[in-house]
Design brief:
Blueprint: H1 4-9, H2 19-25, H3 64-74, E1 87-96, E2 116-124, E3 139-147, E4 150-157, H4 170-177, H5 193-199, H6 206-212, E5 227-228, E6 233-236, E7 242-251, H7 260-269, H8 273-283, E8 289-298, E9 324-333, H9 338-343, E10 356-357, H10 362-378, H11 460-468, H12 471-486, H13 491-504, H14 506-516, E11 570-574, H15 581-593, E12 597-602, E13 607-609, E14 615-617, E15 620-621, E16 632-635, H16 639-646, H17 649-660, E17 664-668, H18 672-677, E18 686-688, H19 694-705, H20 713-716
Parallel strand pairs: 11-12, 11-16, 12-15, 16-17, 17-18
Antiparallel strand pairs: 1-2, 1-9, 2-3, 3-4, 5-7, 6-7, 6-10, 7-8, 8-9, 13-14
This protein binds CIS-heme D hydroxychlorin gamma-spirolactone 17R, 18S.
Length: 721
């Protein structure tokens, strides 16, 4: 029976619980009103003292209660994921908008009235489990759909391409980016020699490098990221017609990022920034939402593109194949227990349902091996599918038996197929009964260690990405590369990287080189590639730059993203004793009505005396938060309050940083004095010296929805902070 407490944890007003929630309920503990027991159910009378020979004597080995408790504690940790160790997850559901029967037979994609339960885990890649959320990194975006035909996992990222083309290079890539092995420095950062040494020898990584040096790699929120299946997959319909497909997740709140300077500071102020943001939004009922997008390509069109559909370092420009929006992903419930759910969930790109299949992408093919293999070490054996979070809601019946920590109690004497003694059960399922039958893809080839010819076009999509960026985005890429390469000790690696960037775009290379104090090589030098022994190096040179079919792709820039809502944005209202309560109240009401989250930030905790003699509760102090944890700042008037703030270095820094990071700022009445103290030009922000605030609040909310005013960026650099 689900416990009272478990019921209380569920979002109020939700429709009937999903089958997955019901399945999880069986395993949910209810400690409320219970007596303490050992693991064997023995009630414990003293949990404060171990058993000793006399009050001051040695502990006794026979104390089985102490031994059981300590032994369990000693084994609490399991190996963290070798990549994607740092993660946060949530439950929710997926629903198609209309049947996708024209593309796929997958049952969960047929009926728009049906909600399929999901568990979604977001992650960074390089850092350890305890690392900062704000590392410059690609983010994992892994979705487990608990469908009635079994689990389907879409194990993707927030960037549509990858560093490498072939699985055999994955351990090298990860060894290069992880902390260097001799001193384990740096944590969760690519700004070090081994990473760039490897990258400077891997021209195929240049497209991905453009993305990870862009603001995409430092999201404002996990709720404001796109997701991508990365590889090309296949959809197969009931008639057996197959089509290629690229999967996309489009966030309802748009794609937004922070600045690198903020990322560095957030890592200090709140390294849990992203997981806290996800948790708080769900707890507040502001459920994160994405639309599922499909780019569907007929099999006959496989070779129509300048690039190879099997190459995971290439994307299909949306101008060439539009993204069809077909369904909705909503996250509406936080996990009950981080370890049991977020840590123990096991994803696998080979967890498929009939109607969805993979392709021969050589990176994906390697992944099909890796994910089960890694669980054997991480989760300790072959029964990880029995852990509640991994169990399918569709029944599990087969002749797999035994192994570490087996939980199912299989009955009867038959554990083989075919059999007559078990009535032939469990029986194979025909297609009509949902049996998975691999699409019979034609294959013809020699056994070789080679890549398709088009895989060697390494730069044209890197150039396409660069050309598609807005000016501020380009500047951020240049700064990111200056930062990363500026951290290198090996000068030769730095130079090699500038040479590599010159192949993408000479202006880009020139700007990066200028920051590093280097010159851009006149002609791109011979690329020092890793080629197989005995191979003809010419065969491994990148092929000549092709004229890309698309010169610019709007979808690759964040400039045109959704900017219509201030919902869930955090707004700091700076106040001290004597603050103008009317101004605070009006702004709070307007922000709350827009779905934003106003918080009072003051020089001290407790409450403030307002100008009209009332009291205002303080949420945070300048010591416990920083401007980087907010999206915008409002400075209400009230002479005693604003003169205290103008004289408080922490408050002044708060305002300066908000300005420098191009966020919305509003000030009313004597609040303008605080702008002055911060050296912020009042003409650049929203102000109202006196009178009603109606217009100001509206303009402020609009400015927050815009996310940032990048036009301010260059000027803001001159304000000292
Ligand atoms: Fe993964 N990857 N990966 N990966 N990956 C893992 O599996 C691996 C790749 C991705 O939240 C591991 O259970 C290989 C691409 C995500 O639990 C491991 C290769 C993409 C997650 C593994 C790749 C991903 C993982 C570590 C190259 C984007 C986190 C723990 C052949 C499409 C899932 C685990 C979660 C996790 C191997 C490349 C996404 C070791 C060998 C490309 C989102 O099995």
């Amino acid at each position: 029976m689900p416990s009272k407490k478990a019921k209380a944890n569920r979002p109020a007003g939700k429709a009937a619980r999903s089958s997955k929630q019901e399945a999880l309920d069986q395993f949910r503990e209810d400690p409320e009103g219970q007596l303490l027991t050992t693991d064997q159910g023995l009630r414990v009378n003293d949990d404060q003292n171990s058993l000793k020979a006399g009050p001051r004597g040695p502990s006794l080995l026979e104390d089985f209660i102490l031994r059981e408790k300590i032994t369990h504690f000693d084994h609490e940790r399991i190996p963290e994921r070798v990549v994607h160790a740092r993660g946060a997850a949530a439950h929710g559901y997926f629903q198609v908008e209309r049947s996708l029967s024209r593309y796929t037979r997958a049952a969960f994609l047929q009926d728009p009235s049906k909600r399929t339960p999901v568990f979604v885990r977001f992650s960074t890649v390089a850092g350890s489990r305890g690392s900062s959320d704000l590392a410059r990194d690609v983010r994992g975006f892994a979705v487990k759909f608990y469908t009635e035909e079994g689990n389907f996992d879409l194990v993707g990222n927030n960037i549509p391409v990858f560093f490498i083309q072939d699985a055999v290079k994955f351990p090298d890539l990860i060894h290069a980016v992880k902390p260097e092995p001799h001193n384990e420095i740096p944590q969760a950062a690519s700004a070090h020699d081994t990473f760039w040494d490897f990258i400077s020898l891997m021209p195929e990584s240049m497209h991905m490098i453009m993305w990870v040096m862009s603001d995409r790699a430092i999201p404002r929120s996990l709720r404001m990221m796109e997701g991508f299946g990365v590889h090309t997959f296949r959809l197969v319909d009931t008639r057996g017609t197959a089509r290629f497909v690229k999967f996309h997740w489009k966030p309802k709140l748009g794609v937004h990022s922070v600045l690198w300077d903020e990322a560095l500071k957030i890592s200090g102020k709140d390294p849990d920034f992203h997981r806290r943001d996800l948790w708080e939004a769900i707890a507040a009922g502001a459920y994160p939402e994405w639309e599922l997008g499909l780019q569907v390509i007929e099999e006959a069109d496989e070779h129509k593109f300048a690039f190879d559909l099997l190459d995971p370092t290439k994307l299909v420009p949306e101008e060439q194949v539009p993204v069809e929006r077909v369904g909705r992903l909503v996250l509406d419930r936080n996990p009950d227990n981080f370890f049991a759910e977020t840590e123990q969930v096991a994803f696998h790109p080979g967890h498929l349902v009939p109607g969805i299949e993979f392709t021969d992408d050589p990176l994906l093919q390697g992944r099909l091996f890796s994910y089960t293999d890694t669980q054997l070490t991480r989760l300790g054996g072959p029964n990880f599918h029995e852990i509640p979070i991994n169990r399918p809601v569709a029944g599990m019946h087969n002749n797999q038996r035994d192994g570490h920590m087996r939980q199912n109690i299989n009955v009867g004497r038959v554990a083989y197929h075919p059999n007559t003694l078990g009535g032939g059960c469990p029986m194979q399922a025909g297609r009509a009964a949902g049996g998975f039958a691999t699409h019979p893809v034609a294959m013809d080839g020699r056994k070789v260690r080679e890549r398709g010819e088009k895989f060697f076009d390494h730069f044209s999509q890197a150039t396409l990405f660069w050309n598609s960026q807005s000016d501020p985005e380009k500047q951020h890429i240049v700064q990111a590369l200056r930062f990363e390469l500026g951290k290198l000790e090996a000068a030769a690696v730095r130079e090699r990287m500038v040479g590599m960037l010159a192949q993408v775009d000479r202006t880009l290379a020139g700007q990066v080189a200028e920051g590093l104090g280097l010159a851009v090589p006149k002609l791109a030098g011979p690329l020092n590639l890793s080629v197989p022994a005995d191979a003809d190096p010419k065969k491994f040179q990148p092929i000549a730059l092709k004229q890309a079919a698309v010169a610019r792709s709007e979808a690759l820039s964040m400039a045109q993203t959704v900017k219509d809502s201030a919902a869930t944005r955090k707004v700091a209202i700076l106040a001290a004793h004597g603050v103008d309560q009317d101004a605070v109240g009006a702004m709070q009401r307007a922000l709350l009505a827009a779905g934003a989250v106003p918080k009072i930030v003051a020089p001290h905790g407790g409450s403030l005396k307002t100008g009209d003699g009332g009291a205002l509760a303080v949420d945070f102090t300048f010591l416990t938060v920083g401007s980087v944890l907010f999206d915008a700042v409002f400075i209400p008037g009230g002479a005693p309050s604003t003169s205290a703030l103008a004289g408080d270095a922490a408050a002044v820094l708060f305002v300066r940083e908000t300005y420098k990071h191009c966020k919305a700022i509003a000030a009313t009445g004597t609040g303008l004095a605080v702008l002055d103290a911060a050296g912020v030009d009042a003409r650049e922000v929203l102000t109202r010296r006196e009178g009603a605030n109606g217009q100001l609040t509206g303009a402020f909310i609009k400015a927050i929805a815009q996310h940032r005013d990048w036009s301010r960026e260059a000027k803001a650099q001159t304000v000292p902070a």
